[in-house]
Protein backbone atom coordinates (compact mmCIF):
# COMPACT_ATOMS: atom_id res chain seq x y z
CA UNK A 1 0.00 0.00 0.00
CA UNK A 2 1.32 3.43 -0.89
CA UNK A 3 0.08 6.42 1.02
CA UNK A 4 -0.61 9.83 -0.44
CA UNK A 5 -0.11 13.24 1.21
CA UNK A 6 -3.79 13.41 2.25
CA UNK A 7 -4.48 11.56 5.53
CA UNK A 8 -7.97 10.55 4.32
CA UNK A 9 -6.84 9.18 0.94
CA UNK A 10 -4.94 6.02 0.12
CA UNK A 11 -4.07 3.83 -2.83
CA UNK A 12 -3.60 0.06 -3.00
CA UNK A 13 -1.36 -2.13 -5.09
CA UNK A 14 -1.34 -5.83 -5.91
CA UNK A 15 2.23 -6.22 -4.61
CA UNK A 16 4.23 -4.62 -1.84
CA UNK A 17 5.58 -1.33 -3.21
CA UNK A 18 3.88 -1.91 -6.57
CA UNK A 19 2.02 0.52 -8.78
CA UNK A 20 -1.31 1.84 -7.55
CA UNK A 21 -4.44 0.13 -8.87
CA UNK A 22 -6.61 2.59 -10.77
CA UNK A 23 -10.25 2.79 -9.67
CA UNK A 24 -13.06 4.43 -11.61
CA UNK A 25 -16.43 5.87 -10.78
CA UNK A 26 -17.71 7.55 -7.67
CA UNK A 27 -16.74 5.68 -4.53
CA UNK A 28 -19.00 5.72 -1.48
CA UNK A 29 -19.65 3.76 1.69
CA UNK A 30 -17.15 2.39 4.16
CA UNK A 31 -13.87 1.02 2.84
CA UNK A 32 -11.66 -1.00 5.17
CA UNK A 33 -7.96 -1.72 4.81
CA UNK A 34 -6.41 -4.67 6.66
CA UNK A 35 -2.61 -4.66 6.70
CA UNK A 36 -0.62 -7.79 5.88
CA UNK A 37 1.43 -9.02 8.84
CA UNK A 38 5.14 -8.40 8.57
CA UNK A 39 7.93 -10.58 9.88
CA UNK A 40 7.88 -14.32 10.35
CA UNK A 41 5.59 -16.75 12.17
CA UNK A 42 6.87 -19.82 13.99
CA UNK A 43 4.75 -22.99 14.10
CA UNK A 44 5.43 -25.94 16.37
CA UNK A 45 3.70 -28.64 18.38
CA UNK A 46 4.06 -28.48 22.14
CA UNK A 47 3.62 -31.00 24.92
CA UNK A 48 2.19 -29.77 28.24
CA UNK A 49 4.65 -30.96 30.89
CA UNK A 50 2.83 -29.66 33.98
CA UNK A 51 -0.11 -27.42 34.76
CA UNK A 52 -1.54 -25.71 37.83
CA UNK A 53 -5.09 -24.45 38.08
CA UNK A 54 -6.26 -21.68 40.37
CA UNK A 55 -9.67 -20.19 41.03
CA UNK A 56 -12.72 -21.44 39.22
CA UNK A 57 -15.35 -20.92 41.87
CA UNK A 58 -18.82 -19.62 40.97
CA UNK A 59 -18.57 -16.35 38.99
CA UNK A 60 -14.79 -16.18 39.30
CA UNK A 61 -11.91 -16.40 36.86
CA UNK A 62 -10.16 -19.72 36.41
CA UNK A 63 -6.43 -19.51 35.73
CA UNK A 64 -4.31 -22.28 34.21
CA UNK A 65 -0.53 -21.92 34.26
CA UNK A 66 1.30 -24.50 32.16
CA UNK A 67 4.84 -25.42 31.18
CA UNK A 68 5.03 -26.38 27.50
CA UNK A 69 7.91 -28.22 25.85
CA UNK A 70 8.47 -27.88 22.11
CA UNK A 71 7.95 -31.41 20.79
CA UNK A 72 8.68 -30.94 17.06
CA UNK A 73 10.91 -29.00 14.72
CA UNK A 74 10.10 -25.31 14.57
CA UNK A 75 8.84 -24.25 11.14
CA UNK A 76 9.37 -20.57 10.32
CA UNK A 77 7.04 -19.09 7.69
CA UNK A 78 7.24 -15.72 5.95
CA UNK A 79 3.74 -14.27 5.44
CA UNK A 80 2.70 -13.85 1.81
CA UNK A 81 2.30 -10.23 0.82
What does this structure look like?
The chain is mostly beta strands and 81 residues long. It has one domain (2-77). It is 0% helix and 36% strand. It is built from no helices and six strands. It has strands at residues 2-3, 10-11, 41-43, 46-55, 62-70, 75-77. Strands 1-2 form a two-stranded antiparallel ribbon. Strands 3-6 form a two-stranded antiparallel sheet. A two-stranded antiparallel sheet has the order 4-5. The protein is elongated and about 60 Å long. The protein starts with a strand and ends with a strand.
Descriptive labels:
6 strands; single chain; 81 residues; two-stranded antiparallel ribbon
- Tell me the series of helices and strands, N- to C-terminal: EEEEEE
Globally, the shape reads elongated
End-to-end Cα distance, whole Å, is 11 Å
Q: Count of DSSP helices?
A: 0
Low-confidence region ranges: none
Percentage of residues in DSSP E strands: 35-45%
Radius of gyration: 23 Å
**Total number of beta strands:** 6
Count of discrete domains: 1
Regarding quaternary structure, what we see is single chain
Class from helix and strand fractions? mainly beta
Mean pLDDT: 79
Q: Largest sheet, order of strands side by side?
A: 1-2
Sheet with the most strands, sense and barrel status:
2 strands, antiparallel
Helix content: under 10%
Write the layout of secondary structure elements.
Elements: E1 2-3, E2 10-11, E3 41-43, E4 46-55, E5 62-70, E6 75-77
Antiparallel strand pairs: 1-2, 3-6, 4-5
Provide a compact summary of the structure.
This protein is mainly β and about 80 residues long. The chain has strands spanning about 1-5, 10, 40-45, 45-55, 60-70, 75.
